[in-house]
Write a structure and sequence with these properties.
Its main location: mitochondrion. Pathway: Lipid metabolism; fatty acid beta-oxidation. Its EC number is 5.3.3.8. The radius of gyration is 18 Å and the shape is globular. The chain has one domain (64-195, 202-264): 2-enoyl-CoA Hydratase, Chain A, domain 1 (Alpha-Beta Complex), CATH 3.90.226. A hairpin with a 5-residue loop joins strand 5 and strand 6. It contains ten helices and 13 strands. The chain has helices spanning 4-8, 82-100, 117-124, 151-161, 163-172, 178-184, 196-208, 212-232, 234-245, 248-264, and strands at residues 2-3, 15-16, 30-31, 45-46, 52-53, 59-60, 66-67, 71-72, 106-110, 112-115, 127-131, 138-139, 189-191. It has a four-stranded mixed sheet with strand order 1-9-11-13, sandwiched between helices. A three-stranded parallel sheet has the order 7-10-12, with helices on one face. The longest helix is centred in the C-terminal third of the chain and has 21 residues, at 212-232. It is α/β, with parallel strands linked by helices. The relative contact order is 0.14. Helix 4 (151-161) packs across helix 5. Bound molecules: ligand LG6FSS7D. Residues 22, 25-26, 28, 30, 66-67, 70-75, 113, 115-117, 141-142, 145, 147-148, 150, 241, 244-245, 258, 261-262, 264-265 line the site of ligand LG6FSS7D.
Length: 266
C-alpha cells in the first residue's frame, strides 16, 4: 500500500512499523498492529505489509512472498488478558480509521494471500490491483475461525461488493480467487504477477492526475458516514470485542484454528 505523498516525495520509507521476527518460520505478513505506531499519521507510517524500495527508490515486493497480509495476528487474540485485547483492538480501529480516512491516494498492490484483516486494509484503499494467482485469495473469512467480523468490516464489504454478495460471502467466510474477486468488484484489476507493481503505479498516476482538493473532498464525502459509524461507538466496539474474544468457546476456536495452521505447514 503506497501513500501517494510519500511516493511523490521519493520517500516511501518514512517510519517503518516493526515486523515481529518469527524464528524458523516462513515470515507471514500479519497485520502486526503495533500500538506504539498507531498514533502516527498514516502519512509517515510505512506499514509492515507494504513493499520496500530499491536503491533507486522504486518499489520492490515485500519480503514475505505469496502473502499480502495474513490478517490480524491471532496470537494477539489468544491467551491474553482483557486489557491487552482492549489496547490491541483500539490500535486496529485506529489503523483502519487512518487508512480509510486518509486524504492520500492509496493503491493496494496485492501480491499474495489477503484474508480478513488484510482484506479490510486493502478495502480501505482507493483501488486494488490483485496478482492473477489462484492461491491469492481475498475476503473476510472470520466465520471459518469461529468469530464474527465487526460491523465496520461488514460496512466496508457492503460498500464495495453490495449487500447480497456480502451477506453470502460473510456467512460462508468465503475467500475469493482472483477471477471471482474481479467479477464481484472486490478488486479493480487482476493482472499477471509481474505486472502488479507497474499496474499499481499506473493507477496511482491516474488518481493523482485529478485536482487534489476536489478528489480529497469527494473521498471524504463518500467515506464519512461509514467512518462516523465507528467513531460514534468506538468504546462500545472495544467492549464488544473484549467480551466476545474472552469467551472460552471463542478462545478454544481460535486455538484450534491456529493449531491447524501450524500443522498444515510444510
Ligand atoms: C470479533 C473478532 C473479530 C476479529 C477479526 C479478525 C480478523 C483477522 O484478521 S483474523 C485472521 C485471519 N487470517 C487467516 O485466517 C489467515 C490464516 N493464515 C493462512 O491462511 C496462511 O498462513 C497464509 C495463506 C496467509 C500463508 O500461508 P503460508 O503457507 O505461506 O504460511 P503458513 O505456513 O500457513 O504460516 C506461517 C506461520 O504463520 C502462522 N500464521 C498464519 N497466519 C497467522 C495469523 N493470522 N496470526 C498468527 N499466526 C499466523 C502459521 O501458524 C505459521 O506459524 P508457525 O511458523 O509458528 O508454524
Amino acid at each position: 500500500v503506497w501513500a501517494a505523498k510519500a511516493w511523490r516525495e521519493g520517500d516511501p520509507g518514512g517510519t517503518r512499523a516493526g515486523r515481529r521476527p518469527r524464528a524458523g518460520s516462513v515470515p507471514t505478513g500479519f497485520l502486526d498492529v503495533d500500538v506504539t505506531s498507531a498514533p502516527l499519521a498514516l502519512e509517515c507510517l510505512y506499514t509492515p505489509w507494504a513493499p520496500g524500495t530499491d536503491s533507486d527508490g522504486a518499489p520492490t515486493p515485500q519480503d514475505c512472498p505469496r502473502v499480502f497480509s495474513a490478517g490480524l495476528d491471532l496470537t494477539e487474540m489468544c491467551g491474553r488478558n482483557p486489557a491487552h485485547y482492549a489496547e490491541y483492538w483500539k490500535a486496529v480501529q485506529e489503523l483502519w480509521l487512518r487508512t480509510y480516512l486518509s486524504s492520500l491516494v492509496l493503491v493496494a498492490a496485492i501480491n499474495g494471500a489477503c484474508p480478513a484483516g488484510g482484506c479490510i486494509i486493502a478495502l480501505a484503499c482507493d483501488c486494488r490491483v490483485l496478482a492473477d494467482n489462484p492461491k491469492y485469495h481475498i475476503g473476510l473469512n472470520e466465520t471459518l475461525l469461529g468469530i464474527t467480523a465487526p460491523f465496520w468490516f461488514k460496512d466496508a464489504y457492503v460498500n464495495t461488493i453490495g449487500h447480497r454478495a456480502s451477506e453470502q460471502a460473510l456467512q460462508l467466510g468465503y475467500l475469493f480467487p482472483p477471477s471471482e474477486a474481479l467479477q464481484v468488484g472486490l478488486v479493480d484489476q487482476v493482472v499477471p504477477e509481474d505486472q502488479v507493481l507497474s499496474t499499481a503505479l499506473s493507477e496511482m498516476a491516474r488518481w493523482l492526475a485529478v485536482p487534489d482538493h476536489a478528489r480529497q473532498l469527494t473521498k471524504n464525502m463518500m467515506r464519512k458516514a461509514t467512518a462516523d459509524r465507528l467513531l460514534r461507538q468506538r468504546d462500545a466496539d472495544i467492549q464488544n470485542f473484549v467480551s466476545f474474544i474472552c469467551r472460552d468457546s471463542i478462545q478454544k476456536s481460535l486455538q484450534v484454528y491456529l493449531e491447524k495452521l501450524r500443522q498444515r505447514k510444510g
